Amino acid sequence: MPPFSLVTPTSVEEAVAELRTVAPGEVAVLAGGTDLSFDLDRAGPSLRRVLSLRRLPWRTLDWNGPVLTVGSTLPLRSLEEDPGISRRHPGLYQAIRAVGGVPLRHRATLGGNLGRASPASDLLPVLLVLDAEVDLVGPAGSRSVGVDRFLLGPRRTVLAHDELIRSVRFPEPRPSAYLWQRVRPANDISQIAVAAAFSPSERRWRLAVGGIPPRATRLPDAEQRLASSVAPTDPELRPMAEEASRQLPIAGDRRRASEEYRRHLVGVLLSRAVRAAAAHLSEGAR
Ligand SMILES: Cc1cc2nc3c(=O)[nH]c(=O)nc-3n(C[C@H](O)[C@H](O)[C@H](O)COP(=O)(O)OP(=O)(O)OC[C@H]3O[C@@H](n4cnc5c(N)ncnc54)[C@H](O)[C@@H]3O)c2cc1C
After folding, report:
1. Of 34, 41, 47, 191, which is best to mutate to test ligand 1, by the most ligand atoms within 8 angstroms of its C-beta?
2. CA-closest residue to ligand 1 atom 41
3. In this model, does residue 17 exceed pLDDT 80?
């Protein structure tokens, strides 16, 4: 690890100004550090500064009517412990609980998960089906980007080097579910992970898949198959599952799963996720 100085700004303006003073490869942004600590071990000699977000006022969780705004540096464990999350965003709650163990979730943040943009992320498929908006702040001010546009590929996002993720906004509570399949239940990444959510305002389903490169992806053609059916029956789920399996942008790999198995799995898990989300709807989770 090269020697670097740790900078801990106390205001957003100071943090952004700090990023502007150095070239992209010379600075690393630190939130919970669960991913970054590995990167620092492998960092090249150009790294000069680590900018810690620890003292910024972003460890927040706000409900404004139906809209939930989560500050980017709030530990996942705090989100998990908020009763509103499990009740109003069950899919998000399930995805958070899929991230490592409790000690990890005391440090790991939503901002860090987005910043890393890993194809294996447990949170990104759910963010997609909830139409989450990512609020960014930089030298030119603030801007918001839908999570679908925010993600470009493995470890690639639209974030400029002098921008930071301030918060993530969820426009409305949605009956939702997150399911994954792993070779080993702990300390492993998913062979496939899926998320499903029903938008009450638009009366339509959103489906997404994760666990495979290059990035978590929505499945619009499969969504069309479910149309506006709030509680799809088996004959309605079957064409959705077939479409998802066909549409899935994947190859197999020798370590975790063949292409054929993943294509089969995506249909099975999506059907279960839609049923689970529909059950939340009938329980009145809103
Ligand atoms: C043992 C272990 C198990 C794990 N298991 C899982 C798992 O099951 N599922 C899963 O999804 N992930 C898992 N992870 C990955 C990791 O914990 C998550 O991605 C976590 O959410 C990252 O958050 P962090 O705050 O620790 O990010 P950090 O490590 O601090 O940062 C990660 C990246 O995001 C950037 N960044 C962070 N915050 C911001 C911000 N506000 N603005 C701009 N850029 C920012 C950083 O610069 C860095 O590049 C695991 C990691 C470990 C070490």
Report:
1. 34
2. 165
3. yes
